[in-house]
Structure formats: structure tokens, C-alpha cells
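User: I'm putting together notes for a lab meeting next week and I want to include a structural view of one of the chains we've been expressing. I don't have a solved structure, so I'd like a prediction I can at least talk through. The sequence is below, exactly as it appears in our construct file.
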Amino acid sequence: MISYILTRKSLFFWLIFHLALGFVSTLTPWVLIVWFYLVLLTTGLGLFRQTVGTFVPLVFLIAYATSFELLARMSGTSPFVPYELGKYLLFVLLVFGILKGYRKGYIGWLMLALLLPGAFFDLAGETTFKNIVFNLIGPINVALAVVFFRRQEMGRDAFIDTIRLMFYPLVAVLAFVILKTPDLESVEFTLGANFETSGGFGTNQVSTALGLGAFITFLFWRKKWALSGYRWLDLAVLLLFIFRGLVTFSRGGMIGAALGIILLLLLDRGERVAETVFRPVRTVLTVIPILLVIAFTFIYADRLTGGLLVQRYRGETTGTLAGRKEKTLNVMTSNRLQIFIDDMNLWKEHPIFGVGVGASRSLRDDSKGYLSHVEISRLLSEHGILGLIYTIILFFIGVRVFRRSRNINFGAILFAIFIIALFTTFHAAMRTYVSPLLFGLSLLSVNEIAYNEERREEER
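Assistant: Thanks for the context. Below is the predicted structure for the 460-residue chain, given as C-alpha cells.
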């Protein structure tokens, strides 16, 4: 089924199809359930039958199927499509790919080994198997993604199609949010995240998805790759992603998108790095119109919210504006800094092996009971020095991606993807599929070899 999506000439059709899928999912989950299993079974069975050349089709399935995680949660498909399916499906597909022989990222095995000791003890005495899986599956998927994706080559067309397949489910999320959100003029905005404007679901996760959708749409628009088939429509979708992400009042996803876009503008030299001279001034001038449109979108959203949007991004709260509360970094980060500090204190008390997987939530002082929002602090508090080594390896991999970004095709795009993945771990930990998948994709080597000559002939 995925190959059918990619070989069909009408890009506009598939955009409309996924918009409709998002709209219908607000009414009933059954259409999404049927579509999800139709794609999973038809494509998955084909992969089981293939003995060679399965890497690219498997990446297609990973990018498309796991990206339905949020829409499935929002539309209430559980238990038919399990809650948090993205993380568990990503685990299964990565293991399948590794067993197929795609395992060049050997350092990922070390990352995996570093995580295991923390699962066998619990200083809080309250951790369950479910809690262990909940906390470990994200970093385990990152380790497996390193094993599976690192040093694998992918053709230019296949890479573009992979990003496009990630885009379609995000469009469905956008449609769901638009339909489920009441008239914005009737929404009572405050200086906190707004569940009404996120379709009634978790604002942080919705903002992350909308931010990723905005980055992907900007990437296609900037590179002049076909997305919907119409440049003006691509721009309209981009502005919708940005506008809807802003009015959720959840900042993480939109800041991540902004970081990715800025890095793309600063570092991208085009697809033929060796033949292109980087001209920052020229690069900025070519995107001034779209940057102005984005700026006006922010201004419009701010006016619609009575000026509260700007105050939200400044880190203000009702208490700070009234003078009852001091505007500190902890207030500006919605208590994330306190959780981080408490995690560091736990690590200081248990530096070798930490407190065990899932135990930090029960052992913190001032932020007891809160989930970690910063994955690095959770790794340190729960895994000790082993978590520190895991983190150092991850940053080392990021440095390698950055160094390659100036010397290889698509290098700037890969580094921007890595940074979005890393930033997501600072506001949503690794509780979604986004970070593991993006970390993996950033490790690919993209070349000019077409993965399917028949597709090119058909498009002619």
C-alpha cells in the first residue's frame, strides 16, 4: 500500500485523503483503524517475503506507520490500535530490520547495554513492569535506531519520500485539531497550555507534532520538492501548522521547529555541496517573503489571543504579571528546571547506578510525582554513570552528524533533524516516537542514486 501511495502521480489526492482521514477520525476511530492495518499488513507481509533489498521499504513503513501514534491516541483507537503504538511498533520494526541484517551502528549495542542494569533494581520500591517499559522504551529505541540506521545509504528520492510519508499523518493530526477546536474567538486564553486549541488532547504532544509538520513543510517549500503539487497550497499548509501550533500555547514543539528552520537556512548549501558556495546573505534574501508571512501569522495569533501569546513565549504567568510570583527560569520552563535539579540531586546521592528505572518520580524532593520532561536528567538520576556514558555517546554522535553536515549531500537537513530530535528530549523526554525516529534518520547517508528507476520512468 505504501508503494502505491508513492507511485501515484496525484500528490494532491494523498494530501486531501489524509486531511479527510483526520476529519473522519474526530467522528469515529474505525476508519483510521482499518486504514492503519491495511497499510501495516499489506506492506509488512511484503517485507516478510522479501529476502534482499528490504531496507528502504522498511524505512518507509517505519516513517509512515509510527507517525500515526498521536492521531491514534486522539481518536481513541485503543485497544484495537494500542495506546502509544508508535514506540512499540518502532521497537518491533527496528528489531525486524536488525534481524534482516541492517546493523552497522555497533555503538548502539553499547548504548543498549548501558540501559539494562537500571531495570533490575528500584530504590523507591514502587516501580512496576509497566512503568519500566514506559520509561525504557524510548532510550532503547534510540539505541536500536543507531544500530539500524547508522552508516546505511539511501538514495535522494527515497529520502524525500521517507520525509513525505512522515508528513501525511501529521496533516491528519492538523485536520483533527482544526475540527475539534471550537471557534477561536470563543476560547478563553490564559498563560498556560490550552487543551481546547489542541483538540482536547495533550498540548505538548500536539505541539510537537504540529512543529514537526511545520518543519517538514518548510523543508519541502525551501527545497522546491513536490509536496501537494502546488506551491501556494504548501505555503498555506505551512502557515496552518504554525498558527495551530502557536495557539496551543505549548512552546516546545514550535521552538523545536524554529531551531530546525534556522539551522536549515544557516547551513544548507544545496544538494551538491562541493559545487556550491555558501552565501548567507543570498540565502536570507530568498526566504524574506516567507519569513515575513510567518511573522504576520505570529502577530495575527497574538492579537487573536489578546496579546497573551507574546507573554507566554516570554515566560510570563498570571502570578508574574500580577507581581505575586518572581519570574525565574523555573517559572519560565513550567517547573521543568525544578524537576531537572531534583534529578541531579538524586544522581549526586546515587552516582554509580542511579535509583533505578522509573524510581526518580517517587524519590524527588520538590517535584515528587511529576514525570521527567528532560530525558538527560532522567537518565542520570535513574541510571547513574551508565546514563552519563549513554548521554555522552549520543552527543558524540551528534557532533559527527554536524561535522558531516558541511561535507555531504543533505548534511544540513540531517543535522537539523538531529537537533529537533535532541530538543524534543528536553521538553517531552522520549515518550513519543519522534526522538528515536529522527535520531535514526539523521544518521543516514543520502546519495544521488535513485532507488527505483521504474518510478522515474512512470513520472515522465
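A couple of points you could mention at the meeting. The CA atoms of residues 262 and 416 lie 9 Å apart. DSSP finds 23 helices and two strands in the chain.

User: Perfect, that's what I needed.
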